[in-house]
Hints:
This protein is of the alpha+beta class. A hairpin with a 7-residue loop joins strand 6 (525-532) and strand 7 (540-548). The protein has 22 helices and nine strands.
Amino acid sequence: MEGLTAVIQESCIQCTSEMKYKTLFTKLGVNYYRLVIFALESKVSDRAQGLMLQLDKYLIRYQKYPENITKSSQVSLKLYMSLKELLGIVRDSINDRELFKLSLTKFNRWFNNALIFWLQTFKTEATRRMEKALEIDRDFVPVDSLVKHSKSSVDVLTCFSEMTSEWNRIEVTDADIMLLGVTKITDTICDGSRLYADKIGTILECNGYYDNNNKTFDVTDQLCITLNNIEHIRQYLDELPGLLKWDQVTQAMSTKHENNEIGLQGKNTLVRLRKTTSGDLLMKSDILLGRITEHMRDDLKRVMELFTNPQEGKKSTFDPLFQYIDSNLRTLYERLMSPIYPRMVEAVWCMVLQCLNQKLLTGQRPEYYKEISTIVRSLEDYFSKGGVEKAQLQIHQHQTLVRALDLNSMTTEELMLRHCWCMADNMATPVDYYGHIALKMAYVEETHGNVTIYVKVLSATGLPGLDRSGLSDPYVTLELWPQTIFPNASVQKTRVVERTLSPVFNETFQFQGIPKKSLLTKGAVLHFTVMDHDHIMSDDFAGEVFIHTGNIQAIRMDQNVEVAQVVMMAVKRPDSPGEVLQVLQDRVHWDSIAKVFVTRRLKAIEKQPARTDRAPSLQKHRTDSNLAGLFSFLGGSFSKD
Length: 641
């Protein structure tokens, strides 16, 4: 086969060169090249077809031996290219009618089976060259001072480029084989790209970059070049549609099969291969970026210590943090390719937030958190100017940090108001049913901006049994919360109604001299606590109700609370402290008001006796809730038979 290839190549040279006897034959009216070509074509075609039939059998026999396949594929591909060149000369020397008679015009069919093995050889050769390139370039030395990637990535892309060029030189005419070849070449390049990224990552690990022995972070050329190499390869993937003529190939498929869907499916496969590989390379880069920021963690915490945990007598300062971040980002900007740098900045931003969340002290005074909030806003501006988009700035870690700072920056009174507002605003149906309480509420305006609040506790229904008998001795306490807003409002309570789960109270209470401004404050509430009286032990907590004081109905001086609508409220039990109460709990060591409030709330959460009666069914619970809403809307009362 190699001998035939040499004969064909020499014949092509002779047929295209200027020979001294060309003029003589032309004057005699003899088409010298036509006669030579016909004679050559007859012998070459027969010989080439016979050799390819033998090769097909050989390839099938030795298909499990890569060395044999590679060598035979290289030889057959050279024969293919020489026949292709010969056919081009033939076309220039004879007319189309004579050309039709030649078997050489169908020479590409002789290589259909061999083509599959060519594609296999492309992949084998690409892997071999890649490993050789990495073996030479283990230290990742830049090509020169003007580029930011090393020679191994250049060698790998040269291999990919030669592969696509070789495929395009083959010039397959059958649409099915074209799509098969283009898909295989694309897959080979995608697999090679992933393999390259994995191998250079392994080299970094073997070189000890991932070791945590060094506590001081240093931006290394090796890591930056590794990132640049991966990006250099990834960018080449974007060129594949043009290099391998995806659109022309898939359109040829649609035309051949007279079905656009077939071509579209082929195009989708190619796009998916490229997109998946690009995503894998980005993920690999992100892992390396994460390694960089992990190495920065200790240094970041060290400089954050200057303002998150300032020493007594020393001024808090965050200048070293900005200087540290700016210095390292400048170095990374100089050494990283432009598509990588924005992702690097985002990774550093994530690590800064993570370290801040970890270093933030708990239970400090609000001024501490306000100062940290100022620093966070300055960091936001810095990273925003560095190219991080708003959506990337406000990630979950940022939201968590800002929320923690906002809550801790609030005064104790603001936190208590927030907690009460949340409790009163929680309209979700409780998982467990603890009954309803029927109320009427109104207020009358007095002089000097004050009001008198009237509350009538009508009855309750479906309360939990807390005594051994399955019944309770319920009573209700009323108070205005938080006490810092209503310092002169005392706690009031109903009488005890013994041995019942549906007590009727019909008692009216009033809170005089309440500033209307306090009444309308967001978070100000009427707090009702349903208790079970115990003659020997302490009284048991049955449940509670929170109502916004801003929802209390205003009435005229000549009216009384009886004109107000009946409100049916579900009795609930708190299930967890929540983040607001946690902030208050963190500051009890220096805030007595917070301590009193937290003590009461934790008691309601932690000391909830189990009911001794049979809990009503969920359906009955829903029916009572619906009736309660109906009677509240109509302004009537609601009680159980």
